[in-house]
Amino acid sequence: MHDLKCLETFVWVARLGGFRATAAHLNTTQPSISARIDQLEHHFGVPLFEPPPRRTTLTREGTVLLDYAERMLALMTEARSVVSRADAVRGVLRIGVAETLVHSLMPRLVDVINADYPQLVVDVVVDTTPVLTAHLLAEQIDLSMQVGPVADPRAVNDRLCKMPLGWVASPDLISDDEPRTLAELAQWPVISFSHASPLAVEIKRALAVEGGENVRLWGSASLTIMIRMALDGLGTCILPRALVQDEIDAGTLRELIVSDVTLPQNTFQVSYLRKPNNFIASLVARRAVEIGRQVEALGRVDRNFRSPRYENTIRHAH
């Protein structure tokens, strides 16, 4: 961009016939104009203007460069105009997403994509964090939203949102608000994330307290199944609290206090690979971060928001 600014300065000096007039036109100082021309001449290794007193007369080399410079600036102006139009972003964007975000962030993100980039086709695959990471590094998806960053030097990672974990159970299973120890809860299964997920590993580590050796940790890759099992009283459940705030408010699930367990953080990241042709992924990642902050601030899932375009887009991986 600095070289383009020097080229723009060169073109205006040639057009206006003077450094002072160019400085006024570009709203800068005359020494700044001189410095840019000096840098350009140093870059090409030739004088572009005749020496004083004919300093604003183009040399032969300057005349040749002027044609290229005008074409380059015209092309950049055209590129800015095209890229700024929503319909300029087109093609297929392959997004991998952890299921927690399917129920929270994705409806709004897909709706924003439809509004901002109407010519962009989105293919969404839902899977666990290890699978999504492998798909991203193998370039089978363009953008991944998963728990934690992708640890690879090619990856660009940005914090998406934090969704704190909580314990819940059916009131038919536990009928009061008294704090419990893990040993007391060990009489029922603990329902949580798939054993293949990094979060499940952290949860196992958190449950490694006195009495935890008797815990039966049931794993599921489906949050819908986890919530259904909790509602049916099949066990206690560890899952993102925001996803069951409606059930807690309605009294169909009870929030538990487990006094001897500190649950791990549940922070999501959006990741894509650093490569020249991946600018669409970077645009969508930026919008995902904005929506992630809104979801985190809200602290609950807005289940009244449902876009039919979103419902038709999600494709679960098997």
What would a concise description of this structure say?
With 318 residues, the protein is of the alpha/beta class.
CATH topology of the largest domain: D-Maltodextrin-Binding Protein, domain 2
CATH superfamily placement of the largest domain: Periplasmic binding protein-like II
Lateral arrangement of strands in the main beta sheet: 4-10-3-1-2-11
Main sheet record? 6 strands, mixed
Global geometry: elongated
* H/E series: HHHHEHHEHEEEHEHEHEHEEHHE
CATH class term of the largest domain = Alpha Beta
CATH architecture of the largest domain: 3-Layer(aba) Sandwich
- Strand portion: 15-25%
From the alpha carbons, calculate the radius of gyration and give it in angstroms. 29 Å
**Unreliable sequence segments:** 305-318
Characterise this structure.
The protein has 318 residues and is α/β, with parallel strands linked by helices. It folds into 3 domains: 2-83, Arc Repressor Mutant, subunit A, CATH 1.10.10; 87-162 and 266-316, 3-Layer(aba) Sandwich (D-Maltodextrin-Binding Protein, domain 2), CATH 3.40.190.10; 165-256, Periplasmic binding protein-like II (D-Maltodextrin-Binding Protein, domain 2, 3-Layer(aba) Sandwich), CATH 3.40.190.10. Helices cover 43% and strands 18% of the residues. It has a 6-stranded mixed β-sheet with strand order 4-10-3-1-2-11, sandwiched between helices. Helix 1 packs across helix 4 (60-83) and helix 6 crosses helix 12 (279-298).
